[in-house]
UniProtKB/TrEMBL annotation:
Family annotation (NCBIfam families): pheS
Domain of life: Bacteria
Protein name: Phenylalanine--tRNA ligase alpha subunit
GO molecular function annotations of the record: ligase activity
Catalytic activity: tRNA(Phe) + L-phenylalanine + ATP = L-phenylalanyl-tRNA(Phe) + AMP + diphosphate + H(+)
Organism expressing this protein natively: Enterocloster alcoholdehydrogenati
Keywords attached to this entry: Aminoacyl-tRNA synthetase, ATP-binding, Cytoplasm, Ligase, Magnesium, Metal-binding, Nucleotide-binding, Protein biosynthesis
Lineage of source species: Bacteria, Bacillati, Bacillota, Clostridia, Lachnospirales
Location in or out of the cell: Cytoplasm
Essential cofactor(s): Mg(2+)
EC numbers for this chain: 6.1.1.20
Domain Aminoacyl-transfer RNA synthetases class-II family profile residue range list: 116-330
Family listed: Belongs to the class-II aminoacyl-tRNA synthetase family. Phe-tRNA synthetase alpha subunit type 1 subfamily.
Subunit details: Tetramer of two alpha and two beta subunits.
Cofactor note: Binds 2 magnesium ions per tetramer.
Length: 339
């Protein structure tokens, strides 16, 4: 019995000595000290020992158990310490390293340009009004003095949902809707997405953005239009910016004009940016056509007004010297980080 006990103890201590993990130590504890372990099994055979030898054998078993438990605790402490040291090595923090920076997004160039336009006109007393992108043909064309046979209504130029509903080709329908309410005077701009059946290239897209403005009151003249847009140009492109108006035709304004601004790169001397002309075309404008007033329920004998429209992408391209409109839509983070 004594020899058997010594053998069990030696085997247990040997296994503890080569153990490399806490789970293995637990397996050893169960194998030798558990309910079905080696020492427990040996104790159950005490009935076969002579009565006078049982106290001595019991003492030997308890001593062996104490040695095994003591060695298990020592091994457990050593392995836990080793695991902790390895964890600290893996998770070491070098306080001299630069901190990790959060990648914070910012506004898109189009949004930056829109906010600048809105800030300028709100500062002049305008309100910002939005309207539906899917619009009735009546508001998109008819109420803007564009008759049914007008080329602008050709299906090659316009996305039709059905014969009465289109994806709006401009934000001018918002002006017609506001005029219909009869709340005068009006000073508003209407930014938003518009749609035209254009091929995608460096200066065209089937979906882009416009900002249109409308002013209606008594005794509004073309001089008011020129003064307003001249102030807008100076605020947007610099205090030295000059404006030039060229006669043009728009169905919903009469008279109508295209407005150019002096090149803010060369100061009007002529450069690659303005193609040597010293001027850059920026927007279309004019006095609201009397027939448009009549269709929207406003007396053209009592009220006059002006309207203008500018492509938001054009503002962004010019202001930030971007030479390809497609860059605004490609979501290339290397490009967008520049703004």
């Amino acid at each position: 019995m004594k020899e058997q006990l010594e053998k069990i103890k030696e085997e247990a201590l040997k296994q503890i000595g080569v153990s490399e993990g806490l789970e293995k130590l637990n397996d050893i504890r169960v194998a030798y000290l558990g309910k079905k372990g080696e020492l427990t099994t040996l104790l159950k055979s005490m009935k076969d020992v002579a009565p006078e030898d049982r106290p001595k054998v019991g003492q030997l078993v308890n001593e062996a158990r104490a040695v095994i438990e003591s060695r298990l605790e020592e091994a457990k402490t050593a392995l836990a310490k080793k695991a902790r040291e390895e964890q600290l090595k893996r998770e070491v923090i070098d306080v001299t390293l630069p901190a990790k920076k959060n990648s914070v997004g910012h506004s898109h160039p189009n949004t930056i340009a829109l906010e600048a336009v809105e800030r300028i006109f709100v500062g002049m007393g305008y309100e910002v009004v939005e309207g539906p992108e899917v619009e009735y043909d009546e508001y998109n064309f008819t109420k803007l003095n564009i008759p049914p046979n007008h080329p602008a209504k050709d299906e090659q130029d316009t996305f039709y949902i059905n014969k009465d509903i289109v994806l709006r080709t401009q934000t001018s329908p918002v002006q017609a809707r506001i005029m219909e309410t009869g709340r005068l005077p009006i000073r508003m701009i209407s930014p938003g997405r518009v749609f035209r059946s254009d091929e995608v290239d460096a200066t065209h897209s089937p979906s882009f953005h416009q900002v249109e403005g409308l002013v209606i009151d008594k005794n509004i003249t073309f001089s008011d239009l020129k003064g307003t847009l001249a102030e807008f140009a100076k605020e947007m492109f610099g205090a030295e910016t000059k404006v030039k108006f060229r006669p043009h035709h728009f169905p919903f304004t009469e008279p109508s004009a295209e407005m150019d601004v002096s090149c803010f790169k060369c100061g009007g001397k002529g450069c690659r940016f303005c193609k040597g002309s010293g001027w850059i075309e920026i927007l279309g404008c004019g006095m609201v056509h009397p027939h448009v007033f009549e269709m929207c329920g406003i007396d053209p004998q009592e009220y006059t007004g002006f309207a203008f429209g500018v492509g938001l992408e054009r503002i962004a391209l010019l202001k930030y010297e971007i030479d390809d409109m497609r860059l605004l839509y490609e979501n290339d983070i290397r490009f967008l980080k520049q703004f």
